[in-house]
Amino acid sequence: MNTHPVDDADLWTAFPAVDTPDTVPADAPWEDPLPLKRRRVLPDFPVTAFPAWLRDFTAAVAEETQTPVDLAGCVALAVLATAAGGRSVVHVRGRWREPTNLFTVCALPPGNRKSAVFAAMSDPLYEAEKELKAQAMPAIIEATLTAKLAEDAADKATRKAAAASGTGRDQLIAEAVGMAQAAESLSIPPEPQLLADDATAETITSLMADQGGRISLMSAEGEIFDIIAGRYSGAPNMGPFLAGHAGDRLRVNRQTRKEYIDHPALTMGLSVQPAVLDGMAKIKGAKGRGLLGRFLYSLPESLLGQRKTLPEPVTEAVADAYERNVVTLTLSLAGWTDPALLQLTPDADTVLQGFQERLEPKLAARGGSLGHISDWASKLPGAAVRIAGLLHLAEHLDRGHNQPVTADTMNAAITLADYFAGHALAVFDRMGANEAADRARTVLDVLRANHWPEVSKRDLFAKVSRAEFPAVTDLDAALNVLEDHGYVRAQAVSRTTGRGRPPSPRYSVHPYLTDPEA
User: Fold this and answer.
1) pLDDT of residue 39
2) Are 60 and 47 in contact (CB under 8 A)?
3) DSSP code, position 10
4) Contact, 141 vs 152, CB < 8 A?
5) Low-confidence ranges of the chain (pLDDT < 50)
6) How far apart are CA 126 and CA 83, in angstroms?
7) CB of 17 within 8 A of CB of 366?
8) How confident is the model over 60-91, as pLDDT tens digits?
9) Which of helix, strand or coil describes residue 306?
10) Which residues contact 108 (CB under 8 A, 6 or more apart)?
11) What is the pLDDT at residue 432?
């Protein structure tokens, strides 16, 4: 299992909330408080959730490159999403439909051969792109020639009308106008493109418009986050990325071009250095507008220092099967102008409902293990559906649209969703998303420093920083965390009959914190 050290900021997510009555008797014995420092155990990447041909190649690439299988696994999902995104959707129930594009990001330190893994996993997409271009070339040449002939004919008609005089001139002008309009209406289809390098938001939008709504950004670097943050524009531009993930209508009016995309489908498969994750959280509006909540995160442990010098290479049979199947899947879906509609079996829907029911209590703001990242976790059922659609297509290749997604496939997708949930907690810890836990640590330091056997909220407020706690109510979440973990107890509220200010709530403090030697 992967482990990563976490500090006191983890105390809100590391342990489930303890169900306690509103108050505990003052003379009740204290139990040892839950420890505030622990190592978060991160789940291993469940590569067995993949169909056999994809599992074998993913594991073989990880072995040959001596990299965590998490990296190849995340890129594999992005490869499937590149092949299927914008060309297939999963119908869940009612009006709930999920597209099959994904945002994945795997964080590893330098020296972990990220580029080698990306090249091995994504090469078949470039082969598929070459094949699509070859197939499209006759139509492109014909359209180019037709447009040139129409333009020449319109120019000739214009010159003829300009030189004419007398009664026939009006007729010639009308003919020239009609021919010019016909030439203008002709369009030349762009060359098919599946993958884009790091590009601006404007370029991404134009590529999606040109490519029938879809494009994929695959990179072993994290430059795209600098671009989103406004490297070229001076201000963050998240619109195309947000719409491209969700499939929301995207309309951009430029001086030279108007771009309308009814159902954009952007896929991103990225590998970055861990420090890039910290920078993601600093992008203005990234959390509030939901950018951070759209990525599936992976934070595996580096194998540097324990790698084999003579690993097993990928066998030719395994590599050939992978390339053949990725190309087959990509080409089979490329021609779908209306996305292929994937249905769930009733059993698959039942499995998904069970996952939703298991997840829902974890989203609670207080006591929910995913409550502090609910903007991310609330999208997890949708991510599981997207992954299920991709696994289904990978299992059935060019026949996936003819049969429904099974319960086994949904279970496999949920296994992957659980993996990403475990890693998201560690990633958001790095990003400082757990504000309640951070504030609880501050309050704990104040309690340690003052050795109070009990304290009122008002007196505690007088000791904390106004920058971190602008109002006394800002103490509530921190005190709830400390109470859940056994460091303080809320005392019974004293009732008064006078008109004066009500007494401040009081808290008993664990003897562990009142003993200077503790």
Assistant:
1) 55
2) no
3) G
4) no
5) 3-21
6) 11
7) yes
8) 999 999 999 999 999 999 999 999 999 999 99
9) coil
10) 67, 68, 71, 114, 271, 273, 274, 300, 302
11) 72
Q: What percent of the chain has pLDDT over 90?
A: 57
Burial 401-413 (b: 16+ CB within 10 A, else e): beebbbbebbbbb
Tell me which DSSP letter residue 31 carries.
P
Distance, in Å, from the CA atom of 76 to the CA atom of 393, rounded to the nearest integer, reads 13
Contact 54, 75 (CB under 8 A): no
Q: Note the pLDDT of residue 13.
A: 40
Please report, for the chain, how many H helices and E strands are present, in that order. 18, 15
Q: For residue 380, which amino acid is it?
A: L
Would you call 434 helix, strand, or coil by DSSP? coil
* Pair of tokens at residue 108: 């590893």
* pLDDT at position 500: 65
Residue ranges in 270-406 assigned as alpha helix (H): 274-282, 316-334, 346-359, 374-377, 380-396
Contact in structure between 60 and 315 (CB atoms under 8 Å): yes
Closest alpha carbon to 342 in 301, 389, 295, 376 = 389
Q: How many residues does the chain have?
A: 518
Question: 192: how many CB neighbours lie within 10 A of its CB?
Answer: 20
Whole-number pLDDT of residue 5: 42
With H, G, I as helix, E, B as strand and everything else as coil, classify residue 254: coil
Closest C-alpha among 371, 85, 360 to residue 246: 85
Which residues on neighbouring strands pair with residue 98, listed in sequence order? Answer: 90
> Phi/psi of residue 271, each to 5°?
-130, 130
Q: Determine phi and psi for 142, rounding to 5 degrees.
A: -60, -45
pLDDT in tens, 9-26: 343 343 333 343 455 666
Whether the model pTM is above 0.85:
no
For residue 194, the Cα-to-chain-centroid distance in whole angstroms is 19
